[in-house]
Design brief:
The chain is of the alpha+beta class. The protein has a 4-stranded mixed beta sheet. The protein is 47% helix and 9% strand.
């Protein structure tokens, strides 16, 4: 017992540069509890495992205990994302890893683990040395690699329960987007898989508040974990908007709107920026299936699960991109207003003096790649759906920051600092996929070679055989990046004044075209030359649209209803 008769507690420390120095001086190990504020099993471990007297005694005897919210520290989150959440990592005083464990650990196994490390601190079987990673020699997949990754996707589909994965069910947005891309090329099998998954995923939309539960367990779609994190909200919203754009199924539009309603109702701050997540549990550590089965009124009588009101640049980038996509499909000006208000807030409150973005109001370390590359993508999407060049300028400025701060010999690393000399920055799959796709599209919008080279550099990392082989069926992002680097986007340009209603009608038809990989521009002569004047357009007394490939352009299109027809002919 502690002084005053209160139970002893673990003295949790934040991650800092001094942790390993202190550990060396005091002959201790470093115990990292890496979790998430929304995570049910993190709460269970906190309430049960870390309140066990034997666990507490062992920690106090030989450990410095460090607790980190992975949403707040993308550097640690990216490094240990395969282990959690919660993830438990034990280091020696030199920063070397001794043990890495994933998920909830009950008290007895935890006490045994802590004692075993004290008895023998040599690295356990969970610590496997990382093989040196070499970039691919070419900026793209070899044909045999491409075929192998496609086969992985097809073979890992679950035709019985629908979707990918056999234990946890969730919507993998890169897979859905790749399937949509292939469906437009006539692949009916991948179209069927995507639509089955989109239909199944709708079971994870909260029927009362909207929004999407993170995933379902037990290999089906009927056992949700109830946390609602921003990336899942944003990417599901974007996926359903894109699916509606392509297949015109009203159920997909309804799903997108239900997620947007949730963002607006529960995850939007007073100034218009977006919060990070909502907890799975009303009472920490207690499963909340009964609570989420209640009506709105009955839920609110009991209280509302905690909302993490941190405002991160990365999470806002995800949300802005998704809302701008929904605006392109619906033309709903309120959706665009929400996206732009959040973007302006992030620019005003998260910008760094040298360009790019902080993660939070203050970052202990960083900057982090995710904040700047996802804001770059958001700015580029805002430019695509508005034609407003200020967003293109923002995209370029942030992309240049990415080039300066995060480019390494192998891809783009997740963070710029070396934390206490212990954790070396390294590339991460999803972020390099975002770099490749965003930089490539930015190259087409601007004609600037540096962005093309940046995209190629990221794809060389993605095309390294070890990357595709070590990520299970999560390979669709690699296929998308490779595909887009090899082909030009659908290119639609509206020529006409931006205060002309006819030009606006053409532009709205262009941004609603069912193509996720597209370059849409609006040229008003009064603004000067096009950012990338690779096509010379004629001007007419009335607004006109043009659809171009790398070899030819369409005749001028004056009727918005004919834009889709010409796009199909392309």
């Amino acid at each position: 017992m502690a002084h005053g008769g209160e139970p002893a507690k673990i003295d949790w420390q934040p991650w800092s540069d001094s942790i390993f120095e202190k550990a060396k001086k005091e002959h201790r190990f470093v115990l990292l509890d890496l979790g998430a504020v929304w995570c049910h099993w993190c709460h269970v471990m906190e309430e049960i495992t870390y309140r066990d007297p034997k666990v507490i005694a062992l920690v106090k005897q030989r450990y410095i205990a460090v607790r980190v919210d992975q949403d707040a520290r993308p550097d640690l989150s990216n490094r240990y994302e395969d282990y959690g959440w919660p993830a438990t990592v034990v280091f020696n005083s030199d920063g070397g890893e001794i043990v890495k464990r994933q998920g909830y650990i009950p008290p007895k196994p935890m006490a045994s683990l802590l004692q075993a490390i004290i008895d023998d601190p040599s690295p356990g079987p969970s610590i496997v040395g990382e093989a040196p990673l070499e970039q691919a020699s070419d900026a793209g997949l070899k044909p045999e690699q491409r075929d192998k990754l496609r086969k992985i996707l097809r073979n890992n589909y679950d035709p019985k329960n629908r979707g990918w994965g056999t234990v946890q069910k969730f919507l993998d947005w890169d897979i859905i987007e790749f399937c949509m891309s292939e469906a437009m090329r006539g692949d009916q099998e991948l179209e069927h898989m995507a639509r089955e998954t989109l239909d199944a995923q709708r079971q994870l939309i909260d029927p009362v508040w909207g929004g999407v539960y993170q995933y379902s367990t037990d290999g089906d779609w009927k056992h949700p974990h109830f946390e609602k994190i921003m990336q899942v909200q944003a990417e599901n919203l974007r996926s359903y908007a894109q699916a509606y754009e392509l297949w015109k199924d009203p159920a997909y539009l309804e799903a997108a709107k239900r997620i947007r309603d949730y963002l607006r109702g529960l995850l939007t701050g007073a100034d218009g920026a977006f919060y990070a997540s909502q907890d799975a549990d009303l009472v920490q550590g207690e499963h909340s299936a009964g609570y989420f089965a209640l009506s709105d009124a009955d839920r609110r009588k009991r209280g509302t699960p905690r909302i993490d009101q941190h405002i991160y640049a990365r999470e806002n980038g995800w949300a802005i991109n998704a809302l701008a996509t929904l605006y392109g499909v619906t033309g709903d000006e309120s959706v665009l207003a929400d996206a732009m208000r959040a973007a302006e807030w992030v620019v005003a409150n998260r910008s760094l003096p040298s360009g790019g973005f902080r993660h939070d109001a203050q970052d202990l370390d960083g900057p982090y790649l995710g904040d700047s590359i996802y804001m770059t993508r958001a700015f580029l999407k805002l430019y695509a759906v508005t034609g407003d060049r200020k967003w293109l300028s923002r995209a370029e400025e942030t992309a240049q920051f990415v080039e300066t701060k995060f480019k390494s010999d192998i891809g783009y690393v997740a963070f710029a600092q070396v934390l206490a000399g212990k954790l070396k920055p390294k590339p991460q799959l999803d972020e390099n996929t975002a770099v490749a796709r965003t930089m490539n599209l930015l190259h087409h919008y601007t004609g600037e070679e540096m962005y093309e080279k940046g995209a190629q550099h990221a794809v060389r990392y993605l095309a390294a055989p070890a990357i595709g082989e070590n990520h299970g069926y999560a390979v669709a992002g690699i296929l998308l990046a490779d595909q887009e680097l090899r082909t030009p986007p659908l290119h639609v340009t509206v020529v006409g004044k931006k205060d002309d209603s006819a030009a606006r009608s053409l532009f709205m038809a262009a941004i609603a075209l069912p193509a996720n990989y597209k370059r849409v521009e609006w040229w008003d002569e009064r603004e000067g030359p096009m950012p990338n004047p690779d096509v010379q357009y004629p001007t007419f007394e009335k607004a006109a649209g043009f659809i171009c490939t790398d070899r030819r352009c369409s005749a001028p299109i004056f009727d918005p209803a004919k834009i889709p027809t010409f796009a199909i002919r392309k």
